């Protein structure tokens, strides 16, 4: 597609529930990233995929967070047993092999009540 | 010390003013520096990308990296109300596709 697409744009869930956030990167982009942005803060790195494999998952805060990219295109960020502190905007980005910065999606605004 | 520190805001300027936005970073090993612009309820949009030191100009925008002082700057000339947004500085890692570390961002308002 023309840009990075994230769905849903908004998600409200109850504490303790499981959520999945989807990212559809720019066609042909091999690198895909997930970031989390809290109010008044810059985005914080979560995980980076090169192709199907997670090249760097050092930003995942704990084992409740997991992400997959099974076919090297669409990625899903999965959060188990959500907590109120997980409320944030989850941003996905993709880039080509040439690097030179990413293209971000508009994000999924997750609210845990 | 945070890896990327950004001047606190918010910042309000009249239309046509020259705006200077600044960041400092702590690790001199990194080579890639970026400025992103973020409108409300949108994802960050890449404005400027620089590698190593020096200046880079694109229209009304100039990005400057001073590696000796670990300083990153973005200058906006002839600022417009449409420039009103949050500006985020970021530094990259060892490779072009490595993770980015962002500053907190500064919100700019350009008054007509």
Low-confidence stretches of chain A: none
Proportion of residues in helical segments of chain B: under 10%
* Class inferred from helices and paired strands of chain A: mainly beta
Number of strands of chain A: 11
Major β-sheet profile of chain B: 6 strands, mixed
Mean pLDDT of chain B: 89
Strands, helices and their partners?
The complex is a heterodimer of chains A (113) and B (112).
Chain A (H helix, E strand, L loop, with lengths): L4 E3 L2 E4 L5 E6 L6 E7 L6 E7 L2 E4 L8 E4 L6 E5 L8 E8 L7 E2 L3 E5 L1
Parallel strand pairs in A: 2-11
Antiparallel strand pairs in A: 1-3, 3-8, 4-5, 4-9, 5-6, 7-8, 9-10, 9-11
Chain B lengths: L3 E3 L4 E4 L4 E7 L6 E7 L6 E7 L2 E5 L2 E6 L4 E6 L8 E7 L9 E2 L3 E6 L1
Parallel strand pairs in B: 2-11
Antiparallel strand pairs in B: 1-3, 3-8, 4-5, 4-9, 6-7, 7-8, 9-10, 9-11
Overview of this protein structure:
- The complex is a heterodimer of chains A (113) and B (112).
- By secondary structure, chain A is mostly beta strands.
- In chain A, 0% of the residues lie in helices and 49% in strands.
- In chain A, strands 2, 4, 5, 6, 9, 10 and 11 form a seven-stranded mixed beta sheet that branches. A four-stranded antiparallel beta sheet of chain A has the order 1-3-8-7, with no helix packed on it.
- In chain A, β7 and β8 form a beta hairpin.
- The termini of chain A are far apart.
- In chain B, β7 and β8 form a beta hairpin.
- In chain B, the strands form two sheets. In chain B, strands 2, 4, 5, 9, 10 and 11 form a six-stranded mixed beta sheet that branches. A five-stranded antiparallel beta sheet of chain B has the order 1-3-8-7-6, with no helix packed on it.
- The termini of chain B are far apart.
- Chain B is mostly beta strands.
- Chain B has no helices and eleven strands.
- At the A-B interface, β5, β9 and β10 of A face β4, β5 and β10 of B.
